[in-house]
């Protein structure tokens, strides 16, 4: 991993940690698997920090550009999947 996670410098230290945790779970969904509930909880926290849909899309696009991983499909699978884990192909 030779890239930076997108965040706003005006956020608190805890908010930055929580957003980085969310993006870390996105990575893990592509590289191995993650618990569905962990993704949903991290996304809920992400949305409390970034409530605007437009801002969400901006952060998702910045993360995808840096990492190559798309965030929305992971969140969508976590919402729609019945199992305990999320794993992207």
From TrEMBL:
Pfam hit, one: UPF0223
Matches recorded under Gene3D superfamilies: BH2638-like
InterPro entries: BH2638-like_sf, UPF0223
Signal sequence region: none
Tree of life domain: Bacteria
Name of the protein in question: UPF0223 family protein
Native organism: Virgibacillus siamensis
């Amino acid at each position: 991993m030779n890239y930076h996670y997108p965040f706003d410098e005006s956020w608190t230290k805890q908010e930055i940690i929580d957003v980085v945790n969310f993006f870390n779970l996105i990575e893990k969904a592509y590289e191995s698997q993650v618990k569905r509930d962990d993704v949903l909880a991290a996304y809920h926290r992400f949305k409390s920090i970034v409530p605007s849909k437009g801002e969400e899309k901006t952060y998702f696009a910045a993360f995808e550009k840096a990492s190559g991983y798309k965030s929305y499909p992971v969140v969508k699978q976590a919402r729609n999947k019945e199992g305990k884990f999320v794993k992207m192909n």
